[in-house]
Amino acid sequence: MACPICNLHAVQKWGKQNNKQRYRCSNCYHNFTLRNEGVKKANQFVWFYKWVMERQVYQHLVRDSNMSQSSLQRLFQFYLKEPPVNAISSKGNVHLLIDGTYFENGLCLILYYDYDIQYVQLFRQTNQEKFKEIKEDLLNLKKLGTQVYSVTCDGHKSTMKAVSKAFPNAIIQRCIVHVKRQIKSYLGVKPQLPQARELLYYSQQITQIHTQEQAAVWLRQVHDWYHKQEAFINQKSINDITGRTWYTHKHLHQAATHLINAIPHLFCYLNDEQIPNQPIR
């Protein structure tokens, strides 16, 4: 062991400080304790993981870590500036999950997650989910020999379009959790309209469908409900002065349209149990 001041190997143990071994240099009489910054950063990575993957806010991180918000921000900047080098580990018949996470500072982190080997094949830091960038990422995976069998995503138009261009034969599975969550966001927890309450009930059943028979029953119920309520859902109001029109029951129309558009890609996982139907955990 060398002294950090004079760099001579004339060091001896010199008691303890804060339960840590203290040392003293016999040459310059400098007292010091050892600090391993690499181990410290590794131990603090748990807070970065909670910030990114569990989306915990700074208020909770400050409380649990006993670090200030400014210290956490410096730590997170350190990790963001030193991203790990990603190597493509899987090649054929990949079940890919694509998910974009937005942060308060305007950062959007898009992950391309190989569900089979539980591995992030690629990630991109951007400000929003863009067709051009997602297509570029998928084509880069393709150039490296990765053959995508299925893609599970939240149904973002840019993602759906990029997948169809880069891997036209890939199966697209809508994330059932995202569909359920989005409809709840449109309608609220306790909607006032009986039609909205019925739609909320049907959307909550999505995550409980595990067989083709259950899916067939659910589809029939939704079809009958929509056929009965279609006129009410698409009802429009008009401004007599300007002539401008809008959907009278805007949120109900948004929720119903979201569900109807998701149905073609909602139950692909029932045909192949290897296809994931939920987001990255």
Task: Explain what this protein looks like in three dimensions.
It is a single chain. This protein starts with 10 loop residues before the first strand and ends in a 19-residue tail after the last helix. A hairpin with a 5-residue loop joins strand 4 (94-102) and strand 5. The chain folds into 4 domains: 1-34; 37-81; 94-174, Ribonuclease H-like superfamily/Ribonuclease H (Nucleotidyltransferase, domain 5, 2-Layer Sandwich), CATH 3.30.420.10; 176-270, no CATH class. The strands form 3 sheets. Strands 6-5-4-7-8 form a 5-stranded mixed β-sheet. The model has no long low-confidence stretch (mean pLDDT 88). It has 9 helices and 10 strands. It is of the alpha+beta class and 281 residues long. Helix 1 (37-52) packs across helix 3 (69-81) and helix 6 (176-187) packs antiparallel against helix 7 (194-204). The longest helix is centred in the C-terminal third of the chain and has 22 residues, at 212-233. Helix content is 42%, strand content 20%.
Mean pLDDT: 88
Assembly state here?
A: single chain
Question: What is the SS-derived class?
Answer: alpha+beta
| Cα-based radius of gyration, to the nearest Å | 27 Å
Q: Helical proportion?
A: 40-55%
Instruction: Please give the number of β-strands.
Output: 10
The largest beta-sheet arranges its strands as 6-5-4-7-8
Number of helices: 9
How far apart the termini lie comes to 44 Å
Instruction: List low-confidence stretches.
Output: none
> Major beta sheet, specifics?
5 strands, mixed
Query: What portion of residues belong to β-strands?
Result: 15-25%
What series of H and E elements makes up the topology? EEEHHHEEEHEHEHHHEEH
The gross shape turns out to be elongated
What is the number of domains? 4
